[in-house]
Amino acid sequence: MIVTIDTAFDFTQDCPHYWDGFWENRNGLGVGSSDPDASSRTLQLYHQTLWSKELPCGEKMDLRCGSGPYYLTWKDFRFGSDSIIVSFRYERYRDMIEKVRLAVPDYNAFVEEFIRKSYTIGGMIIFPKHPGSINQMKGTNPLIADRWDLTLECIRRYYRGESSPLYDTLKRDKDFFDLFVDFQGYVDFFFLQDCVSDDYSEVKCWLGDNTFKASPLPTTVEEYLSWIDSQMDFLMKRNDRIASSLS
Questions:
Q1: What would the pLDDT profile of 168-215 be if each residue is shown by its tens digit?
Q2: Contact 216, 145 (CB under 8 A)
Q3: Which of 47, 96, 101, 155 reaches 20 to 30 Å from 198, CA-CA?
């Protein structure tokens, strides 16, 4: 199947009932009634098309589509889709979200626009799928809090043999990371160059620093909005990189 990739396509469009009761869900914090990572056929096909290519190790990844735990498969690998972009609309973070709600002129429209942009292909990636996998652990580790910049810093450290809050998690997927040979290989394969310095020696932090000593969550409205802006800037650049690679 030949798939034409539209980097502006919003995967909630073909995710059944995503917007149904959105603002009634999660006690008014807003959450979709289905998950594009599992339910969007377009997203699945985009992943299959983009990542079925030559790997830095010299092999060619040739993904096959399935369902459930076999969402995408290649050789002995099973992969799931994961979001890079997050807005921290959690119950435990409600106090900050309510402050943001008061600071933004039309908060509901702000969130809905954010979600539609974040669910374009530039905001998505794949990881090996199994119990205790990366996409699960980066969301539950309190030193990471699902932040992509901090996750990528853990991946950078992994390739250097350095400790991080996710080191043991990443080590369990050594066979996956070996496919990319090194950190630069991983970054280039997934079009993540705008997350790192020109020489790949540093990950650009979108908030605070990468020492894992402070809370990873924004502590003021200004920090929160800056966090959102940084993610959106990266998202736009990654979508442009993906589009350029296809032209």
A1: 999 999 999 999 999 999 999 999 999 999 999 999 999 999 999 989
A2: yes
A3: 47
* pLDDT confidence of residue 14: 94
96 contacts: CB under 8 Å, gap ≥ 6: 88, 217, 218, 219, 221, 224
Tell me the two tokens of residue 245: 């690679």
Give the count of alpha carbons within 13 A of 194, CB side only.
Answer: 17
Burial pattern 220-239, b for ≥16 Cβ within 10 A else e, equals eeeebeebbeebbebbeebb
Q: Which residues have a Cβ under 8 Å from the Cβ of 131 and sit 6 or more positions away?
A: none
**For residue 36, what are the contacts with CB-CB under 8 A and spacing of at least 6?**
11, 12, 15, 18, 43, 81, 119
Q: Maximum CA pair distance of the chain?
A: 52
Q: pLDDT-based confidence at 56, cuts 50/70/90?
A: very high
Domain range summary for the chain, segments of one domain joined by +? 11-234
Residue 142: Cβ within 10 Å count:
9
Specify the 3-state DSSP secondary structure of 128.
strand
The angle formed by the CA atoms of residues 2, 126 and 200, to the nearest 5 degrees, is 110
What are the b/e assignments for 102-114, b being 16+ CB within 10 Å? eebeeeeebbbeb
Q: How far apart are CA 38 and CA 42, in angstroms?
A: 11
Per-chain mean pLDDT for the chain: 96
Q: Residue 91: left (phi > 0), alpha (psi -120 to 50), or beta?
A: alpha
Residue 173 neighbours by CB under 8 Å, 6+ apart: 127, 128, 133, 134
